[in-house]
Amino acid sequence: MPSPVLYGKSAFDSTTESIFTFNWNGAQSVKNRLVVKNNITNETVYDQVQTTFQLKHTLPANALINGVTYNAVIYSIDINNIQSSISNTIVFKCLSTPSWEFSNLVENQIIHNSSYELQLTYSQTEEELLNFYQLFLYDSTHSLIFQSGLIYDTTSLSYTLSGLNDNAQYYIRATSKTLNGMDLDTGYIKVSVEYISPSIFSLVIPENMKFDGCIKISSNIIDIEGVSNPATLNYINDTMVDLSVAGSYVQFDNQFEITDDFVIQINGMGFKDYSTILELSNGTYKIELSYAKGIFTGQSGEKVYCVLKVYNSLTNYYLTSNLIDVPLDTDRIHIWLRRVSSLYDLIIVNKSV
Questions:
Q1: Which of 151, 166, 193 is the last residue of a domain?
Q2: What domain range includes position 298?
Q3: pLDDT confidence of 200, banded at 50, 70, 90?
């Protein structure tokens, strides 16, 4: 008589029903018998037969106790009421459902900046540890814009999202998994972004020069002048510069310096394939951002993406962005480049779609 194969089971909350699935290659299974024992005492705590053609057994809610480790086996029973040999044994835990949520983000919250530091909280009655978590950013249609990697440092549950556009709506979501395999999800939290534009009066400092009979006005505003080729530029709708001619550029190299982490947003349209669209340099090392196109395995047709080339004193490396469908020349393309502790993130989005 063959034996069924009982599939492994992640931890689950005993106050909810849970399904045990198995594989069976013998005669038609019309019933199955699940036996669950306390893994420490080996006392049988559940032994029931369920009639079903499906290769699963539904354990009812409250049949077990949270905080306890169990082992389980299963038997297949055919139409002649003949019970199979015993299956393999699996070990699992029952644990209370953890709390997993944002502590500084609520539905319909308004964010007043292009970046926001998200704070998450996690707690679990039996002190189950968190294994990793991940952040996701979606646009107003629930299309994925960005997802972080798996974050295994769970000592500080915080993550800074960058590249948020003014007057835009997003959904933010965080998922996680515990050490014993419990999957957690905050769900989709809808937020809106409205930048705060500082008043011009907050950028100047008046000082009464009473002995001179005048007022001194100081300002922290710096006028940064760039150079371009051609010298006279063609502006599009007063929002963009036409750099479509080969060799054209805009360059800022006077009174402009980036010395720390940063986020750069580039808005444009009609980018030329395999062209460099941004270069940052300190005279010795530099980074280059280029626009590329290619056909990838598993993708239908060509896709567009960005490539970041980083040159420094340690090593040179490439970073590629996500893939998007080839845009029209009139589509508005947004590109976000972020550096945090010398590590870079790169995202490209077609905002016209």
A1: 193
A2: 257-350
A3: very low
What are the CA-CA distances from residue 127 to residues 11, 61, 92, 194 (Å)? 13, 22, 16, 39
Cα gap 306→16, rounded to integer Å: 46
Instruction: Identify residue 178 by its one-letter amino acid code.
Output: T
Q: How many CB atoms sit inside 10 A of residue 272's CB?
A: 12
Is the torsion defined by CA of 320, 324, 330, 336 positive or negative? negative
Beta carbons of 140 and 124 less than 8 angstroms apart: no
> Average pLDDT of 152-159?
91
Do 54 and 135 have their domain in common? no
For residues 22-27, average pLDDT: 94
pLDDT (mean) for 66-91: 96
Position 46 in a domain: yes
At 52, the pLDDT band (50, 70, 90 cuts) reads: very high
Q: Is the pTM of this model over 0.85?
A: no
User: At which of 169, 193, 217 does a domain end?
Assistant: 193
DSSP 219-285: E-------EEESSSPPEETTTEE---STT-EEE--SS----S-EEEEEEESSPPTTEEEEEEE-SS-
Same domain, 108 and 88: no
